[in-house]
Amino acid sequence: MLPAMLPELSPLEILLWSGLVIGLAFGITGQMTGFCLTRGLREYWLPGEIAKSGTPPGAKLGAFALAMAIAVVGTQLSDFFGVIDLRRSLYLAPGFPLLLVPLGGVLFGFGMMLANGCGARALVLLGQGNLRSFVVLLCLGISACATLTGLLAPLRNQAASLAMAPTVSALDLSANARLATVAVVSLVCAIFAFWRARLAQHPRDLIGGLAVGLLIVAGWLATGWLAQDDFEPKPVSSLTFIAPIGETIQYSMIATGVKPGFGVMLVAGVFLGALLAALLRRRTQLEGFATPRDMLRYMAGGSLMGIGGALAMGCSIGQGLTGFSTLAFSSLLACLGIVIGARLALPGVARRLHKSSSAMKAAQAS
Amino acid sequence: MKSANTPRPPAVRAMHPSRLDDPQRRVVLHNALLVPLAGGTIGSLAALIPHSAQAQGSGEWRKLPAARQLVGTATPLTQGLVLELPLLSEDGASVTLSVKTDNRLRLSGHIQSLHLFATRNPSPEIARYELAPELGAIDLTTRVRLNESQSVIAVARTSANEVLIAEREIRITTSGCMARMTDADASGEMQTRVRLPGPLRAGASGEVLTLITHPMHTGLATDASGKTPAQRIIKTFEVRFDNAPLLTAQYFRSLAANPYLRFAIRPRKTATIAMRWVEDTGKTAQYSGRIVVS
Fold this sequence. Notes:
The complex is a heterodimer of chains A (366) and B (294).
Chain A: H1 11-33, H2 37-45, H3 47-51, H4 59-80, E1 95-97, H5 100-114, H6 119-127, H7 131-148, H8 153-162, E2 164-166, H9 175-196, H10 203-226, H11 242-254, H12 262-280, H13 292-311, H14 318-325, H15 329-344, H16 346-365
Antiparallel strand pairs in A: 1-2
Helix pairs in contact in A: 1-6, 1-10, 1-12, 2-4, 4-9, 4-10, 4-14, 5-13, 5-15, 6-7, 6-12, 7-11, 7-13, 11-12, 14-15
Chain B: H1 10-14, H2 17-20, H3 23-48, H4 65-71, E1 81-84, E2 88-89, E3 95-101, E4 111-118, E5 125-131, E6 139-144, E7 150-158, E8 163-172, E9 192-195, E10 206-212, E11 234-241, E12 244-251, E13 260-265, E14 271-279, E15 284-291
Parallel strand pairs in B: 2-8
Antiparallel strand pairs in B: 1-3, 3-6, 4-5, 4-7, 5-12, 6-13, 7-8, 9-10, 10-13, 11-12, 11-14, 14-15
């Protein structure tokens, strides 16, 4: 099973190194291209506010759609040809909590808009010196751990057992129907990216979407193929950030007694990659909160993302791309939840944007 | 800001110098500072020196009749046997456990038997191993089931009747994200996987990895359909090298599904290694291979 080109490393070492490398690549991509679902949705929904700043509306969302298309094609084909076994992933576990997944998605989406970016984005921003992200990450990681294994875990387990639904995914279809589904889904995403969002005119976003999509596939291949150990079957996964951010905080505290995993290395890699890219491009800048009220908003956003992401079994990346690429019904529900949650937070975002732009105008006038 | 006029919060008042002068309080503060510091230092040192002879015994074994009986009248050594477990595990269904002997350990005999216990499991006994001297230094890794946070104990006895004990605390948490991977399909059951070391130099040690696909039904847990399958486990695992017993293991229901055992072997010559797994129904599985010593 273990490919012959990596005979010197144990499966665990391969897993850890690939986590770090994929994280570094994601961090560098994120820093250089500004890949971000939050910004994509905001610019798509509020084109008027953005037009002034000169950024093309929709290109960021187009990049996300392109990443989705690539992730779906690459992941489904990897499974189809037997390179990885998607059924051993969390997303295709036999049952999923029918109420918690969409609810978690809504909470996550709302929190993401409050905190101006998801967990992965916060890691990238922290790398370039944005200390607001540090607060967001702490709140996110701790609330995620509290929901998964801590104070809120018994409540979550109770709520989950109220309504469990059997998992349905594209893997249950016949081979032809499955390939057709993959083709249709990825085509719809690609059409949105190139036709609606005119991604071809925005090479930076095009590259961002392309790279992130490929990294999702790389994550599946690393955990499901390169690092597979016949004697220690580990779950197959790819890029996801909610539990890993929590695990990283936990690992930093009890490292003498636990081993790091793919997720911890991934988180470390994203931060280091973004730091490296920002240093090389001279884009590092320390930033903090303007007002205590802002701090409260970011803290609430981080906590909502942690709780919501834990309930929904993933974040904008973990469900939006990785989960989506499995074409599981539960992941589609989570994605829908994230978009609805983000949309619910939109009036507040518009108000804040309006306030800051009028404040800027006032400053210019005086 | 009104903070200037608000009374000092209690935490600050407790640290007031006059309170610190109270001798008893000072002792308490001292300990509160020293204990985590010392603990942290020992912990990080232990991580740096993998085979450090850290004392691994806080006396938990005394509370377990089976372990007490094993120790008997001997005075157990709490150094020399090293039990490795994570401090924290999110999946109690399969926790990796290894037992090693400290290579600075000087014993009168070789380790002949090893017993593993999980103090707060419904049935504390996990496994017992009879070991031959050809194994060299003890280095075993397996996977166990832990029902809740508890102490895990390893008791070893040498051919000269010395008793060694190691204990570790482990915390088990619940994580719904950890989907139980139940191998419902019985066709894969009793399939074995073994990896033998490549050619070894004389006197060198190599590692053997073994695994058998088996659900290890405890007779306690309910499956997805709400039924409780009766106990059905792999009862014994025997390894023979050059037609002599090398390692004989007896398993109990606290051993994790798909019984896994990795062990070090230091063979003196090229010979056949034969393995046999026996289910409690009497069903068996076998494997045979060759370890080459050059």
